[in-house]
Protein 1
Amino acid sequence: MASVSLKNLNKFFGNTLVVNNVSVDIADGEFLVFVGPSGCGKTTTLRMVAGLESISDGEIQIRDRTVNHLPPGARDVAMVFQNYALYSHMTVGKNLGFALKARRFDDDDIKKRVLRVAKMLDLEEMLDRKPRQLSGGQRQRVALGRAIVRNPQVFLMDEPLSNLDALLRLQTRKELIELTGELKSTVIYVTHDQVEAMTMGHRLAVMNEGEVVQLDTPENIYNQPSSRFVAEFIGSPPMNFLNMEINEKNGKKFLKNDSLVLPVPDSMKKLCENAVIMGFRPNEIELVSQGGISGTVSVVESLGAEKLVYLKLGVNTISILVPSEEKIKSGENLQFNLRPEALHLFNYSNQRRITSNRND
Amino acid sequence: MNSSYSVISILRLLVIVLIMFILLAPFLWILIASFRPNMELVRNQTLIPQNITLENYVSLFAKSAYWKWVINSFIVSLYTVILSLPLIVAGAYSVYRTQFRGRNVLSFFLLSVYIFPTALLVVPIFKIFDGLSLIDSHLGCALMNTAFAVPFGIWLLQAFLRSLPPELEEAAAVDGISKIRTLFQIIIPQAAPGIIAIAMFAFIVSWTEYLFAMTLLLSNDLHTLPIGLTGIVFGQYRVNWGFAAAGAVGSALPVFILFLIVGRWFIRGISAGAIK
Amino acid sequence: MTQNDFRNSEARLGLYLILPAVVLVILVVILPIISGIQISFTSQRVVGSEFETVGLKNYLDLFGDKNFIASLGRSAVWVIANGLFQTIISLLIALLINQPFRGQNFVRTWILLPWAVPAAVTAILWRWMFDATSGIINTSMMGLGVLEKPLLFLANPEIAGISLTFVNSWRYVPFLTIIFLASLASVPEEEYEAAKVDGAGMWLQFKSITFPNLLPTLTVLGLVGTLWASNVFDIIWMMTRGGPGVSTTTVPVLMYDTAFYGYNISKASAGAIIFLLLLIIFAIVFIFLNRKQFILANETFKDLSK
């Protein structure tokens, strides 16, 4: 296994910059997830690491060796594709052994390795079948097995779970975490699904419009999103945002809009803006019977254990999560409190996070 | 609504039956004619033959060089298929699955062969082939057929090649498998139905070819079926229809058998597996 | 921009793979053309005979040759009648048999039979069908009282061209139909379903879904089919030899006759070159007018390359 380092990667398609100055260091054995909306450049980045896409500018190193000019096959990476790219005219066994055969491994060795991987992935019974005789989950495992059998330095995975149905996806996600953990492999994983990213990645690189906008552990990204975009993209249901003015009264600062006034949290005392975007997650509120922020219920969606309630606060609508035991009807008035620690503040113009330890 | 729909579908079926009748009835009619004695053919005929005779087939099979022509035709067609397949597969892969400068120009260039008036090219071709000792040779004839089968064959194979996901090649590339090996072990097996279809196309182009065979094959021993058939039928002042009919049946028969075996693959092979 | 060896090696391989076909075409098509141009400037009568260079004489002779000018006109009519007519008929038949019906598989296979038999068979078949005294068409028409005397399909200069056009179409329409059918099969079913849900009628579905999807195929077949039609020789030669009189003598037939029966290969070559130039002009105009469709017909990596 090996470390991978992306240094100032750029990719142009014609005149369009689709990957913009991406720099990420991936440690040996790390599971790194590129996550972002479609068209954000995550797949192109992965394809550059694989060597399937040329590098317009920048450098890629695998185990401290620059691989920019190496063809895909010489980079010692294995890739799992979204549509699996199984060779439909070969049996599962042949699919698994094909890369080894091309590398002139001897037949006994191929057999041993294929069998070991088949055992690992519960595919022993399937070795003589053709891909079209397999279920979606089995095909996915064959695609994975084809990567594992080569024992590569790095695994590249391009949305490998997105063609599975919801239940199978959960199960496979768990298996994939266990498997890559056992193999201690370096994995670069691309997904648009933030839940998948949060549960699988040791670290996430959140991408938007070709740039890595935040690179950190799932917890840090969830707790301290670096921008409004990250805050909205990571976490479900998405964070609420309200535009707030900052007023000062008696030496104390307040966040204020047409329907609510909140004291600025102590940690943010040094705030110098006079308007901010305030964000809070729907689950970080507390219902109270009186004295809280008041809103009118517009829609109630039941999610099973919880209810997602849309509240009208003046001209804005926010969503909150409440336990499903709460009896709430639309049109009703609700009151809730927001803990100051639950607030995220973002700069009004550049939408970046306003951190607590700012000194200016 | 429903009744008008079924009226339309019955009408449609009738038109289809009429078209198929126009296309296939002549074959049936010539088949019947081939079993009639010659005397019956020049008189007004009944639909069902009054007398059935094998004399026409006896003259075809025993008294003409029919079997020699069939074998010659097979040899030329086989050469044509063997020469065309690699050129078509390589060319189609090149045009439709790789990127290089001049790709579009070259594919136009190939299709432009059909501009050239074949009936008029035979003179210079004869001269050039004479210099290459390709006159009076089945190979020379097959070479011409190949040149005219390849450009359209490349275009015919495109649908199938396009339907293959690019990830198949990318997966192979990441696994370190060479482009050539990928072509042989992944693309060609995946495109098998398309390749069967173009083999059939090349075979039929060659099987039906008349002009080059007539010009380039001088000895009677090398004549192909179209040449032999033309000779026995149109060589005489008065056409012997019974014999001509047997000859036509004898020349259509190999194609008929080919269609029975692989006919249904043709449409499948040129339509990207879109037809089940 | 940095180099990428993977893409470069792909480009090199692409070029190598197409080269054999290009070389073959140059060998058997381009070289003969050059040689034909050379011959056309000489006074050669038969292959191998002595000759001298005569410059443009053959060309000037041809432009004054009423026979040649008339054959150009007949070729033009032939190309329009065959190229255009066949394309339209094939498209209609393809649309007709595209929707499932009982026997569709049979039709899709056996419709091709007329295309797959040698022209000599076609010629026998239709000369037999058209025969004046024992041909089924004439005998049954007279039997039904539709005709009083037999119609001379191939011997009457007024209708011989129509008869030949019919026979030639009988031969090529099936093949063109199957290619259209293959192209129709690649139109995504969802597009039709979406259109039906939106309430689009048959005509609107054809205009907005079928036709645009068929356009690249239609363009390639329009070009290649027209060129095929213009060079048709064997079926005319076997059925009428250009007759009766010169009524079905198109340029290929006249030039073949001039070369091998009139023993004047240099004049025939000059005629061929003139015909070729006309076809090249047609092809260039056609490709230029439809260049978008041709490029489209060549695009595969739409999303990857740009």
Protein 2
Amino acid sequence: MTSNKRRRLLALCASFGLASCAKQESTTPKSPGAGLSMRPYGDRSPFEKTLRGARESTKSIGVGSSRTPLHELYGTITPSSLHFERHHAGVPVIDPAQHRLLIHGMVDAPVSFSMDDLRRLPSITRPYFIECSGNGGGELAGNAGADASRSHGLLSNSEWTGVKLSTLLSAAKMQSGASWVIAEGADACRMARSIPIPKAMDDALIVYAQNGEAIRPEQGYPLRLLLPGWEGNASIKWLHRLHVASEPAMSNQETAHYTDLHPTGKASIFSFEMEASSVITRPSGSQKLAGAGFHEISGLAWSGRGKVAKVEVSTDGGKAWQAAVLDEPVMSKAVVRFRLPWQWDGQATVILSRCVDETGYVQPTREQILADRGPNSTYHYNGIKSWKVEADGSVKNV
Amino acid sequence: MFEALLLSTLLSQTVTGRPASAEEIRKFDITVFPDGKGLPAGKGTAAAGKEIYKAKCAECHNEKGEGRDQQYPRLVGGVGSLTSPKPVKTVGSYWPHATTVWDTIFRAMPYETPRTLKPDEVYAVTALLLHWNGIISETFELNEKTLPQVKMPNRDGFIPDARPYQKLKK
């Protein structure tokens, strides 16, 4: 059968809802060349269409964000092609052979590393989430997202490989009095953030790999800072300079933006940690349950302060809560998947999830957050997310 | 612990990375601190900044820093709005340090051609924005000495992060 005829037959099967016919046809090729053959760099099945939702925020190309389609993914690792993005001046093209990382300022031995230099050093591989502190900003503002991508999609989780920042700072011999390091990217706007030295010497990484291969251009190729558990904006991409100092630079990003305004008119500055949060991704907004009976409720939970200790799920609008299963291993400052079996009686209801981390911190409600820091704090929203399951099985944001 | 000790010994002996020269550092170092450290010599006034602003900034930020199409940031006004239901965060109402204005313009603006403005031009445009916000006069000369001394209206508007708002277990 020619491929044209095959396609027509498949289309015919699909239009009549003959799933079994289509399935048999697609899984039993009539010729060896009809399927996917060996390729030097693989791609997903042409039947898979999941995409990031992307948005340019100005007419100047390069300022904007794209969101991970959390509600269409499985497990905990975000495919690199679907990692969320937030850029302030586009994605630079950087030749790794030319790229260097300069460490200077309050150090006795200013040093410049090539990518090869960095790859020679002892490496660490770990999963960590990166979450934009603007994630959930719409929920705070009362413009809740219709699906989990729009509500929580500025969150992704990858396996990162790189060098401990403490290794590099030790090599440069920091002087006494050094208390901040200003990290700068090689993007057009030279985005910069000031990082306290205790974090730099704790678990901060300089990473060159993501999910087993070189990090993607959108994630900072060839080199980025990774600050586990802290707001994504501070994990500077396209990292090319580390300036050790006794004070923060008070850069644009850490003053004009990424500060949390309170109703008093004062704003919290250097609010880095991402607090415990969770979201049910199945069933979630824009999905539809096929009918009453068994369904697994499943979602993602994370905390910037350490390990997730417990996730509780309610299927009756928050009256009763049950502990969900956490899929092992539960890793510090990484996303964990939670699951709970559910017999749906076919009645309309509201489902919610609540994360508790190892410090005892309990994910708050939106009302608690509004009471703590008001409606204009913009960043670090981590309120309990609820979804309404209608009697017809459709799931909507509430 | 043993690994850390071994590593520090090895690293002190291993040549990884090369010493960075003073010239290399000078070329890359554009950090400006609130006390003025890092500012290059130069000067400018609001009066001198008008033509530069018109040519290089107004397309996005509008004629007098009012922003455009709710897309490009408003740079002027908003003082007194931070406690209102709709806070307007601008250079005048929100930014705590004048050095950040200079640094932002120098490192990141104009958006399409960043780092093409000369230090004098950056001082001039910074002076214009501060003048439009009623912070300095039209003839006040901004330079590497006077800029860090400018007190911004919201200089004391920032507080340390007080989270978590709930008690954690020890």
